[in-house]
């Protein structure tokens, strides 16, 4: 179709990432499908990225994620240096039809400030939109800047100015959903799994207390701050507690991790991660925050593992209660739902994922947003959130 897109993944991790990496995994899932649809992709990432693309631009040789634990005045130039490289590239060439940006706050602000001579920008919102109220609440993207969410629930909580720039939402996809309905049944083990970065918003402390109280085996898989393995965290010493996720883990989660009923296995990647997820009785999401996208949710369904969760954020959009998972607004009810999860059929989870959450479905929806972005004029403040409803049928 002759469309060239600069895909701005940012400077924090390579694409695909070497383990945990939410946004970078989304980009790694989306780009191959866009290229199959005829889109030419220029990836703005770090030089260690290995994802096949038509071109790659970078400022940093390696991902800078480890620097995020350092004081702000030591790291505040990292994202800006990366964006400066993107801006230089855009000013030096005239073949970029649009920019698809994934860099929180800095990407949106920098690209909006480029003015009317720069290409159109679609900025995907992967995070909690209660952050950055001054940026989002006063956004004026002119004729060029539009945003999309990763769930309808996420956009519903957005400031008015941000909603007026929205083209709607696109649910996340996973390669695990391709032919998921044909995947052989996996024998389920007895454990439940909490998959993702250890963080108060994810509620791992709720999960470990529940496991000890109800009496089920629980596995926690994911990094604690910048530490991907228990040995790394143990060797880091007291200085690691500068990171709030480390403090949370050590104070509220680790006292319940006994290596028997409750285990923290660190970051698990690749086939080992998929095997761990597929063999779980259920995945547990005891959320304290409004989950915007739910990558681990769609991966769980694709591997035939039902979801037990607090019904917050995108969860009601992704999980059909009583069919592919069990949802509750009451934290105290989670124990009963864990016991009932064995009644759900893994085949139903895989079938739902194959219909809704494949990379091809996600790419076609983004392609529709690209085409709409290129046709649009200035945001219409009187339309409110009506524009998203038109997009979702694409």
Model description:
The protein has a 7-stranded parallel sheet with strand order 3-2-1-4-5-6-7, with helices on both faces. The protein has a 6-stranded parallel sheet with strand order 10-9-8-11-12-13, sandwiched between helices. The protein is built from 17 helices and 13 strands. It is α/β, with parallel strands linked by helices and 394 residues long. Helix content is 38%, strand content 14%. It folds into 2 domains: 203 residues, 3-Layer(aba) Sandwich (Rossmann fold); 181 residues, 3-Layer(aba) Sandwich (Rossmann fold).
Number of helices: 17
Shape: globular
| Architecture per CATH nomenclature, i.e. the level-2 architecture of the largest domain | 3-Layer(aba) Sandwich
Q: Look at the structure and give the CATH class of the largest domain.
A: Alpha Beta
Mean pLDDT: 92
β content, as a range?
5-15%
Provide the number of structural domains: 2
- Measured on Cα atoms, how large is the radius of gyration? 21 Å
How is the largest sheet built, in terms of strand order? 3-2-1-4-5-6-7
List keywords for this structure.
Rossmann fold, six-stranded parallel β-sheet, 38% helix, 2 domains, 394 residues, alpha/beta
Write the layout of secondary structure elements.
Elements (H helix, E strand, L loop, with lengths): L3 E5 L13 H15 L3 E6 L9 E4 L13 H4 L1 H16 L5 E4 L4 H7 L8 E4 L8 H5 L7 E5 L2 H5 L3 H4 L2 E4 L22 E4 L8 H12 L2 E4 L8 H7 L7 H10 L8 E5 L3 H10 L2 E4 L9 H8 L4 E4 L4 H4 L6 E4 L5 H7 L5 H11 L2 H17 L10 H6 L3
Parallel strand pairs: 1-2, 1-4, 2-3, 4-5, 5-6, 6-7, 8-9, 8-11, 9-10, 11-12, 12-13
Helix pairs in contact: 1-16, 3-4, 12-15
């Amino acid at each position: 179709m002759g469309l060239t897109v600069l895909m701005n993944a940012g400077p924090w991790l390579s694409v695909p990432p070497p383990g945990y990496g939410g946004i970078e995994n989304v980009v790694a899932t989306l780009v191959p499908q866009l290229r199959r649809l005829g889109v030419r992709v220029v990836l703005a990432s770090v030089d260690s990225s290995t994802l096949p693309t038509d071109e790659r631009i970078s400022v940093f040789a390696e991902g800078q994620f480890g620097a995020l634990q350092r004081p702000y005045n030591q790291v505040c130039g990292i994202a800006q240096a990366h964006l400066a490289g993107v801006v230089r590239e855009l000013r030096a060439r005239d073949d970029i039809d649009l920019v698809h940006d994934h860099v929180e706050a800095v990407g949106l602000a920098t690209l909006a400030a480029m003015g009317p001579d720069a290409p159109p920008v679609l900025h995907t919102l992967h995070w909690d939109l209660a952050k950055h109220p001054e940026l989002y609440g006063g956004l004026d993207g002119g004729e060029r800047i539009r945003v999309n969410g990763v769930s309808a629930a996420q956009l519903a909580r957005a400031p008015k100015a941000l909603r007026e720039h929205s083209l709607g939402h696109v649910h996340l996809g996973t390669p695990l959903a391709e032919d998921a309905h044909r995947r052989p049944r996996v024998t389920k083990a007895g454990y439940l799994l909490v998959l993702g970065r250890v963080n108060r918003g994810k509620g791992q402390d709720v999960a470990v207390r529940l496991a000890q109280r109800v009496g089920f085996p629980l596995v926690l898989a994911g990094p604690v701050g910048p530490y991907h393995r228990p040995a790394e965290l143990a060797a880091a010493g007291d200085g690691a507690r500068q990171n709030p996720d480390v403090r949370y883990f050590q104070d509220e989660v680790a006292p319940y991790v006994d290596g028997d009923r409750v285990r923290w296995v660190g970051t698990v990647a690749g086939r080992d991660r998929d095997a761990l997820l597929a063999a779980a009785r259920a995945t547990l999401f005891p959320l304290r925050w409004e989950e915007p996208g739910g990558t681990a949710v769609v991966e769980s369904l694709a591997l035939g593992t039902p979801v037990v969760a607090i019904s917050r954020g995108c969860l009601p959009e992704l999980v059909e209660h009583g069919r592919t998972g069990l949802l509750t607004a009451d934290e105290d009810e989670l124990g009963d739902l864990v016991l009932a999860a064995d009644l759900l059929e893994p085949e139903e989870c895989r079938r739902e994922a194959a219909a809704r959450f494949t990379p091809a479905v996600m790419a076609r929806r983004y392609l529709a947003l690209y085409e709409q972005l290129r046709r649009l004029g200035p945001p219409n403040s009187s339309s409110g959130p009506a524009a998203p409803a038109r997009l979702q049928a694409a």
